[in-house]
Amino acid sequence: MKSKINTLSVIAVACLAATSQMAHATEVFRLEGYGPISRAMGGTATAFNVGAAGMMANPATLSLMAPGSEFYLGLDLISTDIKVTNQVTGESISSNTHSSNRGPYLAPELAFTHRNGELTLGVGAFAQGGLGTEYGNSSFLSRAAGGLNTGLENSSRLLVLNIPFVASYQVNDKLTVGGSIDAMWQGLNLNLLLGAGQVGSLIGSGRVQGSLLPVLGGLPDMRGAHFSMTKNEPLASGVESWGFGGRIGMTYKVSNETMFGLDYAMESQMNDMEGRATLTAIDGIAGQIPLQGAIKLRNFQMPAKLDLGLSHRFNDQWMMAVDVSQVFWEHAMKDISVGFVTDSGQTLDIQLPQNYKDQTILAFGVAYQTGNWTLRSGARLATQALRSETLLAVIPATPRKHISAGFSYAFSKDDSVDFAYFHAFEESMSNASLPNTADPIQTTHSQNNATIGYTHRF
Length: 458
Hints:
The protein has helices at about 1-15, 35-40, 195-205, 215, 330, and strands at about 70-85, 90-95, 105-115, 120-135, 145, 150, 155-170, 175-195, 210, 220-230, 240-255, 260-265, 270, 275-285, 285-300, 305-315, 320-325, 335-340, 345-355, 360-370, 375-380, 400-410, 415-430, 440-455. It is mainly β. The strands form 2 sheets. It has a 22-stranded antiparallel sheet that branches. A two-stranded antiparallel sheet has the order 5-6. The two termini are about 15 Å apart.
C-alpha cells in the first residue's frame, strides 16, 4: 500500500508538470467543483460519493466508496469569453490567444485511493483554480497617459495546484470522518500597465513607497509604469511559490436515504511568490526606461471555505444534493502587495487595493440512474466577491451563475467514464475609480467548461 501511494505521488507531480494551460476560475480564483460527478451536479460534493475527487471537497466522502483500490484520471477543458470596454471611447478588446501560455485552458486531475476495512487512504493531483487573460499590446489598455501608445502587454495567468494526501475513517454505520494535508504550488504571470493618474492615486493614498519613487518622480514627462513578470511557457511562471493547505470533513447518515455532510478547508499557507521582473518607466520625452530586478508578491493566499451539504435518495433511481458554502475571501484578499528591488538595489513597494467580500454559494444537483447510465444536472448561484471600484481588467473573475449537466457510463463494475458540462452565464461589472483603472471600463465574462474522467477499480 505504501509503495502504491509513493508511486502515485511521483505520478501526480509529473502530471502537474505536464499541465499545458490553466483554467479561468469560475468563482474568483477557485474552480466550482472537482471531478465530473460533482461538476455535473452543480459542484455539490459534501454529502455523497463523488469518487476520488472528493478529496478536494469533503475527504470524509472517501469512506463512502467501495472497498478496494480506485484510480482516477480526468481532464478539464475551459473556454472563456472575456471583453473589456472603454466607456469613454467605446473601444473594446477581447481576451484571446495572443501567446503560447493562454487558452483554451486544460487542467488534468489524477488520484488514487485504497479502502481497507474502515480506513481509506488516497493521494491526488488537482488544479484548484486560477485565472487567465490576454489582451495583447495594441489596445487602449496599452496606452499610457495622454494617449501614448506603449506597445506593452496586458495579461495575466494564475495557476494554483494541489497535491492532497488524504485519510478517511468510517467510525460506525452512520459517521465517517476525514482529513487531508495538501502540498500546494502557485505561479503567476502578469503584465500590467498603470497610467500616470493611477500611479499618482496610489502615491496620494500612501500605497507606493521605496527609494525608486523619487527617481520616477524626477522624470520630465512621466506617463505611466509597466510591470512585466511573465514567462511565455506552458507551465513556468514569472513568480511562484510552494506552501500547504488542508481540510477536514465528516458525513452523518441521518437515515438510510438522507446524509448530512460538513467540511472546512483552511486558508492556504503559501510562501511569498518570487521571481524576476521588468519595471518599465514610460516618459513622454525620455521614452521607455526598463529596470530589471527581483520581484516578490507577498502573502497571496487561497481563502478558507466552509461547506454544509445534504443528500437524499428518493429511490434506486433518483437522488438529489444541496450544498451551502461560505468562502472567506475578505481575510485572504485585501491587497495585491508587490515588492520590487532593482539590480542596483533601489526599491519600490506597491499595494493594489482589492478588498474582496466573503462569498456565499448555493449549489443544487439531481441524478437519475437507469441501467449502466447515470444522468445528472445542477445549478449554482454565488454572491459577488469582487468590488466594482477595485476591478482590474486583468482580473475579471466575476461569473457567479452556473448551470450544469452530465452523465456516467459503467462499462463494467470496474471501469466507468464520467462527463460534465458547466456554463457560466455572462456577468458584467464596471469600474470608473482610480487607482485600478485609468479610464472607466466595463468587463463582461462568460465561459463554458467540459470535464471528462475515467475510473478503474481493482
